[in-house]
């Protein structure tokens, strides 16, 4: 060490000593007071942070070792299971349930500027023409519900279902609107309704997943798999996508040469290793993993059995209009009934192909979409009747709807006339129906104006529908929360009203 | 958007804030005045004057803000007038006291202090009566048990007047406090038909025939935490039955005179009316028929017995959190059901729902559950149950829903269930009941929803054909 370095070192030490000497008792006490204050505020704010609020806020007991065990809802619910039929792409309310004779009179006229001022549409530009209903309507049942000729089977159930005719959304693109409908947020990352429900209620059959997703129509919904994701909830609550074609769950069968005993032995070994890992790290997610392996092993037996619709009698197939070996809405509807019968909590169906823009034949209201009507009409009618005759409808809530509605105007993509009849995305008012588990029968809530553009009464939004579904299952949507990133989250965020008017 | 700021409005609403300040200061000043007579507290003497000054100023401010608040017209005129004059008197005496304190003899000074205390108490009481209702103070002494009011039974409900005997007592108990003679919040007064018809400032208080759209009902149906919910969340709430009653009344049209028997009433309403007849305001039993679980409390089930069932694969779950009533589901214990069903016996009082669908049970095991006192829903679909087993179920006192889908029961066997007063739904799809028997069964069970199943969804030509653009 050179002389200079030594000198420097001494200088530093001297400076440090000088600082310490400046630090009088008075300073110490003063700073301690601040520090104590900081400590105090930390403990005061502690309630808002971390996991301390976990079981206090939602009251849901979460056992990481057995995350899917059935749990009691806060109050006895009217429904035990949910079947949600989502028509991805958004079906037109004006061709199915919302009868608007006045719109027919305006068919072909220019859209009045009052409807366009300040509005943004997905595809409509300039001044589009109005488009009258592309269907004949008639009244059905004692309730006198208007249902179009496109649903000849479903119209016989007019007195079984409850229509919400003025549903509103604030998203005019498919993916965000679907996310909003199922996760309560138009952006990615929130848990889906099925995840919330299985988190809160568990599931009755430990050999099957609690939340099953079935898709048809040739494509997944635009929002992708996030729409049945578990977001910030433990990952065991995400929807399990099953297939109605081929193996119900990919890789569910043991590969050639792997016997069930060997499979059991390997799962036991993996779980043993995981158990040791848990003893070391105490991470509850490891327990979840162990139980998932065990459930998967049991599912290898039960899932193929439940997911196989071939053991259903011919007249049931006839009733639903199934197509063996295909991923059709009818097959999925029959599967949904079988799953609910076996104690699955939440069955989510997505049927793709409803985006009736009219820019090609397959999505035109006068050709392609008619085939979509035909593909669901018989099946959803059969589903409701089959649930009813098995005594399951009184404890199952069935919901049908899209992510938004369709405009009373004909779409004019790029300012040009589309070659086929079609409508653009419409957020102001569309129709959803519910049936079963504690909602009124043969009832309709909400009305739209004479061309079906705006709601005139009984307007509800996604949060209200979610609040109502949770209510029927026995939850208060305002207190059913999960702590994440320092605050309790809920499905309905800061909105939602239980639609009391439709409760039975 | 232009926000109109009304200074008198703001000042008026500050009255409750301002008013407590002079009350405290003046009381303390008077207290100091009195106790400083004792040599020990002599030193408090100089504090009295400035305190009195502050208190007097504060009371003047209170008078001004109180005057503006009274302009809102939400309060009962005569009570406001006495409160106002008492307040002005307090302020005047306090001011005189401040300015003449050093010019009068000590005994007079002390008596003025006592007078000020008395005035403050009197004025304060009147103010309290205005905000909390004139019976607020007395209620604290007389009604310790809270707000569950047991009404006098109505001897003959059919003859009772809908408004005078049923509706008015509800309004009196839950609404008059803020919308009565004493106070008219939102300019609404509900204590006489004329005032009800006049409505409040938001209009549409009652739309005859349209209960759901009437402001009165729609506000009651808002979530309790909503700012517009009525009654405000800290006040006693209407029971579900009371809301139903008001809806029924409003839907019957402009009606202050009709009797119960003159209005149509559905099943639900009949239940509520019957409860009212027995003096129950609906907080306990009126909507019990609507509730899916029994209301009467029950002891917790034997934990050992529950554990045994769980080990056997039976799902035992409380029907709701914090309830001792249980549901049991054999979905994952269907195969050995007959051997473990006996384990249910210790749970007989708690069991409300029992799901035995597809379980391998026999008629014999039904004798075990034939006397479960709370059982409301029994699902026996696809089991080997026959008429013999059914006969064991005739004494279930609470049974509401019975699922016999895919069992061997016949129309003859169902006769034993005729006695049940509670049964509401009966599922008979794929049972041995013959098609021609259903007419008789429906006659046998006029109040029960009998589901025969066997629904057919016919196949139309359109179901199997595909529309294409090509002609």
Automatic annotation (TrEMBL), chain A:
**Matches recorded under InterPro entries:** Alkaline_phosphatase_core_sf, DUF1501, TAT_signal_bac_arc
Pfam families noted in UniProt: DUF1501
Looking up SUPFAM superfamilies in the UniProt record yields:
Alkaline phosphatase-like
Record's superkingdom? Bacteria
Q: Which PANTHER family match?
A: BLL7424 PROTEIN, DUF1501 DOMAIN-CONTAINING PROTEIN
Task: Please report the name of this protein according to its UniProt entry.
Answer: Sulfatase
Species name = Flavihumibacter solisilvae
Automatic annotation (TrEMBL), chain B:
Q: Which UniProt keywords apply?
A: Membrane, Transmembrane, Transmembrane helix
Q: Which domain of life is it from?
A: Bacteria
- Keyword RNA-binding included in the entry's annotation: no
Q: Which InterPro entries match?
A: Cyt_c-like_dom_sf, Cyt_c_Planctomycete-type, DUF2231_TM, Leu-rich_rpt, LRR_dom_sf
Domain Cytochrome C Planctomycete-type positions: 175-234
The residues forming the signal peptide are: none
Q: List each copy of the DUF2231 domain by range.
A: 14-131
Can you tell me where the transmembrane regions are?
Answer: 17-35, 47-69, 81-100, 107-127
Single Gene Ontology MF annotation: heme binding
Q: What is this protein called?
A: Uncharacterized protein
Source organism of the structure: Flavihumibacter solisilvae
Classification from the root reads: Bacteria, Pseudomonadati, Bacteroidota, Chitinophagia, Chitinophagales
């Amino acid at each position: 060490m050179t002389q200079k370095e030594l000198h420097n070192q001494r200088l530093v030490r001297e400076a440090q000593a000088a600082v310490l000497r400046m630090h009088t008792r008075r300073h110490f006490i003063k700073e301690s007071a601040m520090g104590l204050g900081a400590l105090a505020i930390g403990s005061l704010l502690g309630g808002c942070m971390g996991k301390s609020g976990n079981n206090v806020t939602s009251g849901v007991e979460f056992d990481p070792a057995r995350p899917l065990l059935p749990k009691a809802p806060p109050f006895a619910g009217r429904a035990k299971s949910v079947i949600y039929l989502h028509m991805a792409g958004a079906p037109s309310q004006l061709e199915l349930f919302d009868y608007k004779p006045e719109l027919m009179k305006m068919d072909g006229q220019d859209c009045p500027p009052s409807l366009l001022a300040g509005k943004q549409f997905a595809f409509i530009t300039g001044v589009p023409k109005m488009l009258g209903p592309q269907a004949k309507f008639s009244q059905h049942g004692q309730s006198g519900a208007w249902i179009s000729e496109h649903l000849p089977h479903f119209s016989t159930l007019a007195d079984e279902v409850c229509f919400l005719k003025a549903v509103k959304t604030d998203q005019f693109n498919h993916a965000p609107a679907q996310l909003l409908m199922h996760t309560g947020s138009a952006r990615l990352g929130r848990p889906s309704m099925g995840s919330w429900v299985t988190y809160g209620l568990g599931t009755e059959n430990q050999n099957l997943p609690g939340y099953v997703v079935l898709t048809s129509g040739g494509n997944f919904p635009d929002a992708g798999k996030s729409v049945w994701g578990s977001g910030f909830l433990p990952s065991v609550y995400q929807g399990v996508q099953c297939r109605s074609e081929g193996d119900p769950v990919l890789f569910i069968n043991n590969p050639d040469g792997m016997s069930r005993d060997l499979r059991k032995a390997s799962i036991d070994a993996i779980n043993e290793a995981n158990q040791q890992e848990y003893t070391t790290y105490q991470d509850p997610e490891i327990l979840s993993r162990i139980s998932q392996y065990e459930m998967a092993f049991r599912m290898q037996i039960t899932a193929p059995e439940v997911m196989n619709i071939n053991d259903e009698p011919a007249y049931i197939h006839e009733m639903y209009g199934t197509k063996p070996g295909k991923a059709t809405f009818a097959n999925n509807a029959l599967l949904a009934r079988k799953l609910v019968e076996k104690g699955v909590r939440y069955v989510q169906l997505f049927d793709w192909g409803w985006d009736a823009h009219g820019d090609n034949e397959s999505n035109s209201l006068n050709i392609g979409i008619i085939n979509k009507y035909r593909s669901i009409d018989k099946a959803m009618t059969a589903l409701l009747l089959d649930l009813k005759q098995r005594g399951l409808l009184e404890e199952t809530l069935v919901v049908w709807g899209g992510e938004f509605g369709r405009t009373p105007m004909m779409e004019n993509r790029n300012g040009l006339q589309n070659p086929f009849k079609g409508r653009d995305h419409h957020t102001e008012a569309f129709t959803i129906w519910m049936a079963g588990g504690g909602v009124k029968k043969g009832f309709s809530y909400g009305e739209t104006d004479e061309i079906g553009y705006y709601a005139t009464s009984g307007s509800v939004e996604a949060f209200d529908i979610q609040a109502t579904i949770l209510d029927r299952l026995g939850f208060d949507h305002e207190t059913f929360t999960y702590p994440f990133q320092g605050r309790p989250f809920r499905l309905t965020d800061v909105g939602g009203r239980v639609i009391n008017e439709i409760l039975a | 958007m232009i926000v109109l700021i009304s200074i008198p409005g703001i000042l008026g609403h500050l009255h409750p804030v301002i008013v407590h300040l002079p009350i405290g200061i003046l009381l303390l000043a008077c207290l100091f005045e009195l106790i400083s007579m004792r040599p020990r507290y002599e030193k408090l003497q100089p504090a009295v004057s400035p305190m009195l000054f502050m208190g007097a100023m504060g009371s003047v401010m209170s008078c001004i803000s109180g005057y503006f608040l009274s302009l809102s017209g939400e309060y009962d005129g005569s009570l406001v007038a006495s409160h106002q004059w008492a307040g002005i008197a307090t302020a005047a005496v306090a001011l005189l006291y401040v300015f003449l304190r050093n010019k009068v003899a000590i005994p007079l000074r002390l008596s003025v202090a006592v007078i000020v205390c008395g005035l403050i108490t009197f004025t304060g009481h009147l103010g309290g009566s205005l905000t909390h209702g004139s019976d607020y103070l007395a209620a604290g002494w007389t009604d310790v048990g809270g707000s569950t009011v047991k009404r006098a039974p109505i001897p003959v409900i059919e003859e009772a007047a809908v408004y005078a005997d049923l509706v008015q007592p509800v309004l009196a108990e839950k609404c008059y406090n803020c919308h009565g003679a004493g106070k008219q919040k939102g300019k609404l007064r509900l204590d006489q038909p004329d005032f009800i018809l006049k409505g409040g400032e938001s209009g549409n208080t009652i739309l005859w025939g349209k209960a759901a759209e009437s402001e009165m009902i729609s506000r009651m149906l808002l979530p309790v935490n909503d700012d517009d919910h009525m009654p405000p969340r800290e006040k006693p709430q209407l029971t579900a039955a009371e809301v139903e009653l008001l809806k029924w009344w409003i839907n019957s049209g402009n009606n202050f005179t009709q009797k119960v028997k003159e209005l149509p009433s559905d099943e639900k309403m009949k239940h509520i009316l019957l409860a009212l007849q027995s003096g129950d305001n609906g907080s306990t039993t009126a909507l019990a028929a609507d509730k899916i679980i029994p209301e009467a409390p029950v002891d917790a089930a034997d934990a050992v017995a529950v554990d045994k069932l769980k080990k056997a694969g039976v799902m035992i779950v409380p029907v709701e959190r914090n309830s001792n009533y249980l549901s049991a589901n054999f979905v994952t214990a269907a195969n050995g059901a007959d051997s473990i069903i006996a384990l249910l016996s210790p749970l007989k009082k708690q069991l409300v729902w029992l799901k035995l669908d597809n379980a391998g049970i026999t008629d014999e095991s039904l004798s075990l559950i034939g006397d479960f006192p709370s059982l409301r829903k029994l699902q026996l679909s696809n089991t080997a149950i026959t008429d013999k087993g059914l006969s064991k179920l005739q004494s279930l006192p609470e049974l509401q829903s019975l699922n016999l889908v895919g069992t061997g029961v016949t129309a003859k066997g169902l006769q034993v269930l005729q006695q049940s007063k509670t049964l509401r739904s009966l599922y008979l799809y794929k049972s041995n009941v013959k098609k021609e028997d259903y007419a008789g069964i429906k006659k046998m069970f006029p109040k029960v929803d009998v589901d025969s199943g066997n629904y057919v969804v016919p196949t139309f030509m359109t179901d199997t054909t595909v529309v294409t653009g090509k002609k």
